[in-house]
């Protein structure tokens, strides 16, 4: 396969977010299935991926938009005059984003890589900078694949995540224009494609599902933290707790499990990894009287987290209390790859549950403490009976989240190209 793919990515620094980890995994797997892959990225530091040419796009620091953005920042930081919201209401986006978009366009224009057979834009968070750039380059729209990783704009998120942000109409029009102009679109989940397609119907015509990807990552020689004993019954939640992802019922259910199984106290732990969040104070207070609870808020590297996932008894995916969760969590592939049972807490209508299956037994709504306690007890008894060796055993998901399914999707895209 000698087809050329140009990736225009917001970031390829796997330490900056779970989203970037997924984008880098996709880039590596595109290379693995035989595509000639090159990457332009706006990480703004020199990062290279093995056997994949990568070019860091430089920020244009000598433009009118750049000086406007710095002037606005100076007013905000020094004089406490915040014009950020009024400006976004007026222009839709920040001066910084517009300057970043133009910086990407300037780097792409005239590049020999524009003769690639397919150009894929990958972003993170709510910025979509590469998408902004490609939208302004109509000569490339016929071979543009826009990867939409989350609902956008913010008011199109399902409850309780939805909120109306400044410049919401311009942001809505931005996604509408992508849906009309990108020859192809891709989403990490089926539910997300259907969700966005309900607002922008053209996505249902151009859309493909490309889930967050697995890739081989060596963890030999990486030391586990002192608080993590791989011989224990460890329930591990890796990732930041956003406001709607409330862990309180899980913690209380874990405590109920311990009260019912006092023999488990000496070798059981519920572990939360991630940065400071709205639940930090509550978790820290609870940790004082529940010694089997461990909250680590210091930074832990991606490779070390993966090592812990591989050595946990149970990996936890915690979603919001909602009617639907169309997101595929960035850590879902890592949890599948770890081949350990997954404790899934979230709505019945979710992409994670769709993939694990309607009858998946280790699932509960986020606030059903009694059911969660029962599931933890069942997981514990299985862990004891199998001496910690019970696996998830889902080769179908391994294939879906890696090169076999990715090759199939890219084959369909290729066959549809003129």
UniProtKB/TrEMBL annotation:
The protein's name in its UniProt record: UDP-glycosyltransferase
Organism of origin: Christiangramia sediminicola
């Amino acid at each position: 396969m000698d087809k050329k793919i140009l990736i225009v990515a917001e970031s390829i620094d796997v330490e900056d977010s779970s989203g970037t980890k997924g984008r880098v995994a996709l880039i590596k797997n595109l290379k693995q299935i035989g595509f000639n892959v090159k990457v332009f990225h706006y990480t703004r530091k020199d990062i290279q991926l093995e056997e994949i040419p990568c070019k860091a796009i430089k920020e244009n620091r000598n433009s009118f938009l750049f000086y406007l953005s710095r002037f606005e920042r100076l007013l905000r930081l020094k004089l406490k005059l915040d014009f950020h919201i009024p400006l976004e209401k007026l222009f839709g986006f920040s001066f910084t984003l517009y300057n970043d978009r133009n910086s990407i366009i300037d780097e792409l224009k005239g590049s020999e890589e524009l003769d690639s057979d397919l150009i894929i834009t990958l972003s993170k968070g709510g910025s979509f900078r590469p998408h902004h750039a490609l939208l302004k380059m109509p000569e490339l729209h016929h071979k543009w694949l826009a990867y939409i990783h989350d609902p956008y704009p913010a008011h199109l998120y399902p409850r309780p995540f939805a909120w109306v942000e400044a410049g919401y109409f311009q942001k809505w029009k931005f996604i509408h224009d992508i849906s009309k102009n990108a020859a192809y679109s891709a989403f990490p989940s089926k539910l997300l494609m259907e969700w966005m397609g309900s607002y922008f119907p053209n996505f249902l015509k151009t859309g493909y599902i490309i889930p967050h990807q697995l890739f081989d990552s060596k963890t030999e020689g990486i030391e586990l933290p002192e608080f993590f004993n791989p011989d224990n019954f460890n329930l591990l939640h890796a990732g930041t707790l956003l406001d709607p992802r409330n862990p309180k019922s899980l913690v209380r259910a874990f405590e109920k499990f311990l009260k019912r199984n006092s023999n488990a106290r000496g070798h059981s732990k519920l572990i939360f990894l991630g940065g400071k969040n709205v639940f930090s104070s509550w978790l820290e207070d609870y940790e004082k009287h529940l010694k089997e609870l461990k909250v680590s808020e210091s930074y832990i590297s991606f490779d070390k987290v993966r090592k812990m996932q591989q050595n946990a008894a149970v990996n936890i995916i915690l979603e919001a209390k909602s009617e639907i969760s169309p997101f595929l969590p960035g850590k879902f592939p890592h949890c599948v790859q770890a081949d350990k049972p997954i404790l899934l807490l979230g709505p019945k209508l979710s992409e994670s549950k769709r993939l694990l299956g309607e009858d998946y037994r280790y699932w509960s709504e986020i606030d059903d403490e009694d059911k969660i306690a029962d599931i933890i007890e069942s997981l514990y008894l299985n862990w004891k009976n199998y001496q910690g060796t019970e696996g998830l055993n889902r080769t179908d998901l391994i294939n879906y989240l890696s090169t076999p399914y990715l090759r199939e999707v890219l084959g369909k895209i290729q066959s549809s190209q003129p």
